Fold each of these.
Amino acid sequence: MKTGIFSPTRACRRARHTTWRQLNAVGAVIVGLLAAGCAGNRPGEIAGPQAAAANQGIGQSTAADFDAGVPLAYYQLSLEFSKSTAGFTPPVQARAFGYMGLALYESVIGGMPDNRSVASQLHGVGALPDANGIPYNWPLVANAALAEVMRGLWGDQTNKATDNIAALNALESNLASQYGAGIPPGIAKLSSDFGRSVGAAVFATSRDDGGDRSYLTNFPTSYVPPVGPAFWVPTATGQVAMQPFWGATVGTFALSRAAECDPGPPPAYSEDPSSAFYGEANLDYQISKSLTPEQITIARYWADGPGTISGPGHALAIVGEIVMQQHASLAQAAEAYARAGIADADALTAIWQAKYQYNLIRPITYIRRVIDPAFTPILPTPPFPEYVSAHSGQSAAVAATLEALFGDNVAFVDHAHDADGFASRSFNTIFDSAEEAGISRLYAGIHFQSGNLNGQALGRCVAAKVNGLSWRR
């Protein structure tokens, strides 16, 4: 058992006050998020805005003195955006989470005396505004930073720009009223202006990473896939490869290059029944013929396809669950979202690099060709190559960053799909959820076992790079 950096907060075992179901009405989110921390369990109790106001929030408070209501509200709103904003495919969405986490963390780093900025340690991130010791109100800073960077990421030229920006403006105003209560107007304005400057700077530095407005270019018709029996082919009429150039053109954050966590090649292609490749395909086929109701539920629960919160969104929803369950402070939430977002973004870029480097055939194509022409998976196969599994890789990357912070023995309940008619799912550890996400793709007939396991290994590699940054002084 490994304890995490934040492990002392686990002494607080009070009942969770808020779930994602209660956060569906984003405008009322703060009412349910002012859960007090546990007195005496750490320096700087988690304080709601009224408690901070009593202290004036001037010159004495750090980001650890405030609750995580601000980031929780914005990340919940981002999940709603994911359902309705066209083009936020997994790599595009994960990239947005990377920049959101960076903006959040860097905006409040001046109120985190034990932490250091990571901006200079990341590739392609320009200079960001510095707090310079000014006694800001950190929730107001975070509020403005997230609103501003999200106006760029989820506004700009998206099909829902007007609606998304209006929702962000309304949330920013609501939170400013809640967390600005009792704060001198001058400090409130300085705090919001500073946060807005960080959010704007982070969005500006995102614009030359190769992924700007990538929600408009998911399916380039210029891509010509390689030809051969082992290679991916479209699995449905009219299907076009999704983001085939992502791994080669989009920059990474913590990784030196997209291939730094290359998982190595998949098993050699073969149609010989005694071969390892045939064995993996046959495993998928045999599973498909005897799926239990629980396995079908798992496959559908983790489907996270178009029009949903998507796979990266599901991983970030789990971050929110852990933040709430652990009664994390604003400081802890900022670091958790930053690590998870950067890991998610780099994992998806590394995964997409592997997918189009190895360009492996999907199970549906192989099984219909070699084993059973009538094979039909229970979920549609996504429009990109098999190896490695994005579900496995990005879920593992996020889970491993969370376990580095909170420990590897944190049980939790996933409520990500409560509103979609699914029962919540319980896990004994955070990484258990990543393993279930990975195996769900075998149940769905979408991935081979090597794509799952090597995807998890890639995710752990990415998390190690992110966790290896100098986050502490």
Amino acid sequence: MKRSDLTERLLDIKREKGWSWKHICEKIGGYSEVLIVGAILGQMKLTKPQAANAGELFGLSKSEVAMLNEVPMRGEGTPMPPTDPLIYRFYELVMVNGPAWKALIEEEYGDGIMSAIDFDMVMERLPNPKGDRVKITMSGKLRVSNHEALLTSFETRQGPPLRMRRCGNPHPSRRGEDAAPQDEELTCHLHPSIAANASRRSLIGAISRT
């Protein structure tokens, strides 16, 4: 069975039972409604406890429950640009407002992205005499780029210096009088937690020879 087949089975059961999305989300629990509905529609994964709750609710087999806990092929089945009017409006919203979001986020936080994995989204209905409004709140963890993390680390000089040892011959571009001898010890003031995630290329410009 493919994930798309499971999605159709879940939707068939939802129709037969006459369940609302709100009812399904309350029974599964643990996430905002947006993420749970996304999982039922095949775009997100559920945790094992949530998948077990879904299995009990929908009467699923063990393999179907396990599939709900697997990472799906996200975005599958949605054409780009979207053709559905409601989904297209969100596409248009990102295209128009995306550059401003990028500028404001980078000014406030520095170079990085807002995670769509460590992420939550809540939708609310706001009564309004001129017509009810849709309110969507997104919350994603800020993931700072390695380059930005290095700059921050060097500016604050966190932690003791981290020592590294050059092994083997230097890069061809470094051979000659300026080449560092083999096993030359290098040092940089870099917090270990950042060093663990930083690529060697990111470190090249930040290393100073002792």
Amino acid sequence: MTPKSAFHSLPATTAKPIYKCGTYLHTMDKKGLISVPVATAVGLGAIIGAGIFVLSGTAIALAGTDAIIAFLIVGFVAIMVALEFGELGSIIPKEEGASYSYVYNAFGSELGFITGIIFYFSSVTAISAISLGFGSYLANLIGISSSYSTFLAIPLIFVLAVLNYMGIKKAANADSVLVLIKLAVLFIFILFALYFAFGAGHFTLANFGTDSTQSGLGPIAAASIAIFFAYSGFQTISTLTSKIQGGANAAAKSILLSVVLSLIVYLAVVISLILLVPSSAFTVSAADPILKALDFASAPYSLKLLIDIGALIATASASLAMLLRSSRIIYQLGSDGLLPKVISKHAPKNDLSINGLIVTVVIAVITLFSGNIYVIAAISVFGVLFTYLMSSFALIHFRRIKRLGSFKSPLYPYLPIVAIIFLLAFISGMPSLSLVIGIIMIISLLSIYYILMEYDEKKTVKIRLFK
């Protein structure tokens, strides 16, 4: 391979924005498209699973009853970002990289490369974190120690990879069925909590008490980091915009619906958890808080079995949605010439990059052994917050140059400005380890980008920021 052919000509940083669709044409006919309900289910599949079945207990352990406030704050920010993504998706409807594609088209290949790789690794670490939750619930179901969670998570990733290999529509339809099942299970859990508290007379305000370590802005911020991990799922819909019946407007509707519905479910489940268990009894490291709550309330075995099965379905559904998203990101990165052809080679029959799927599975499995679920989730959240932040700037850029889509987010420019302020606040409040890893990733990717530019003999464009 000659320097000129590396990464099929890596685009150089340009002074002007790059507006380019992916090199692969979308030949899927109407029969291959997915409906708005199915697209919404894919978003719910990615959102409802990690947050409720895995990290809701972590949020309560960090902020006590104030976790409810954290869920409301993060839900509010997620709705703002969802509106932004609805507009961005209508501006660039044919590309499948979600926030990466928005940044790439707005600011060029340099920032696009950094955003895309960070977004990809954020999605892959999300697969690992959610799969660990699956392993924890499965360990409880078969009666073995939760220390085996990691090894139980590995087969899940391989099974979901096979389902992903079968094609987008089959994977999305499977996800919609799983979503209906887990929503039904959560509804049963909420009814039990209400009966336990008010029907059986076990309600006590003491459960809603918050100790000194759980009160204040610091704990709320820490809980928000864990919660934001849960809301990252709706970007999955953005990667499927060109595959949704009705195009960008339908995708925007699906994104907003998935976020609003998940917020309602989240609040109901968190309140139900605290009705069953004092907020001070939750722990940060527990990956199965709903089962722990049912054990505390001496719930019947049949209900715990149902919740356990529902949790397995929920975490499997969320992992599937994240795997689907990861494969679309790596496909789009490759089609834009920012990854080698061997990784992003497209298989039309399956409508995905098979080699990219293999790389994703390998990285996800390795990440399982990197630490506890909160650390993995926090690393993923850094990537989510960073990509949301860059996407907010991309929206401002497109509005400034009057590149408009069929869907327009309301309250411009206040909405993206407020979103940027909140996102910067969340990033500044992240655990130091996550910030360090995030900064190292940005510096490393910047170095890699310019090394590749030098290898590909690209010239750097010089611009004057000030006259």
